[in-house]
Amino acid sequence: MKLREERKKEVLDFCKKLIAARSCSGEEQEVAEELAQYMKNHFFDEVMVDKYGNVIGKIVGNRPGKRVLFDGHMDTVPAENPEAWTHDPFTPVVEDGKLYGRGTSDMKGAVSAFVSAAAYFLQDFGKDFAGELYLAGVVHEECFEGVAARSISEIVKPDYVIIGEASNLNLKTGQRGRAEIVLETFGKAAHSANPEKGINAVMKMCEILPEIRKIEPPVHEKLGKGILELTDIISSPYPGASVVPEYCRVTFDRRLLTGETKESVLAPIQAVLDKKAKEDPEFHAKVSFSLGKETCYTGEEIQGERFFPGWYYSPEEDYIQKIAAELKNDGFSPELTQYSFCTNGSHYAGEKGIKTVGLGPSRENLAHTADEYVELTQLFGAAECYYSVMKALLR
């Protein structure tokens, strides 16, 4: 399906509405209302809003078949420095074939494209397809990749998921996940004029960090290295004026590969702590995953450990080959690669084992940047690609 000029204008206008609605994490209500209204105006069979504020549209075919879910988050990172933008980040502007605004690439362009594609699929085929089509606008992805998506998969129970994150219209068959690991050491406060009366938690931390640095995370043939990198260090009390610190905390960013569990990721660090504890009776430490907690626009609290699994499917999987063949038949030439960042696929594929693939407009490196944009050829191409995916999996 090639978009007629009339449909191109509709997709662009819809995307502009979503961009104009500010929607940092926890503030997605206006975008959610725009999305739900569009679905109702275009005769979706059902439009649901769950307790977190995720919007789910449903279109049912007249024959039994698979459940196909398109996933895209409604929240964006803030535009904290509007002076760095050529145009107001929330006033969508088209210039030189590009649509500028916060969320154009990450990822309101994709959301507007796949919801529009579903409306056109319904207009063109009616109910003459096998299965059920679901379109989801997701909250709080920027904070918790995959946590709000758990509610969606519980409601939809999809057989296939298409993640709309930016891929330059290529197919993404996997991604590394990520975890935030917290390491704490506990000491005893004392006046720094008499340090022997205390136990310096920072010094205890310094003694084990070189050993932790020797840990070699696994490597995946396609996804790359499971990196373990220290990202911050905090002592208490702070500032520590004339006080031996009684507490120290460091955070590690750990990139996760397929098959890794919470237990397997923490085990080598715990082994370092256990060894040190046997050697030093004054050493006390704890390792865990950081906990996140945020409030949704519905008032519901969303929380969870920051452990978002990696996932990978072979390009030879039948559903991926079907999609690729349909895209090629419709004039596209997608490469089959992997995402370099974390997505809601951490839940669908990583936690639930649901067959997942990524496909979205724009380039990955435009996310979170000043003067964020999506090329119109990418935006319109994404709508056409999503239509092709629907044909591949439902027709």
Topology (elements, then pairings):
Elements: H1 5-20, H2 29-41, E1 46-49, E2 55-60, E3 63-73, E4 93-95, E5 98-100, H3 104-125, E6 130-138, H4 149-156, E7 160-163, E8 171-175, E9 177-186, E10 190-191, H5 201-213, E11 219-220, E12 224-225, E13 228-236, E14 243-244, E15 247-256, H6 262-279, E16 285-289, E17 291-295, E18 301-305, E19 307-308, E20 311-312, H7 318-329, E21 336-339, H8 345-351, E22 355-358, E23 373-375, H9 376-394
Parallel strand pairs: 3-6, 3-7, 7-22, 8-21
Antiparallel strand pairs: 1-2, 2-6, 4-5, 5-23, 8-20, 9-15, 9-16, 9-19, 10-14, 11-12, 13-15, 17-18
Helix pairs in contact: 1-2, 1-3, 3-9, 7-9
**Structural class per helix/strand content?**
alpha+beta
**Morphology:** elongated
The count of DSSP E runs of length 2 or more, i.e. the number of strands, is 23
Count of discrete alpha- or pi-helical segments spanning 4 or more residues: 9
Beta-strand fraction estimate: 25-35%
The major beta sheet can be summarized as: 6 strands, mixed
Please give the alpha-carbon distance between the first and last residues: 14 Å
**Rg estimate, integer Å:** 24 Å
Contiguous low-pLDDT stretches (5 residues minimum) are none
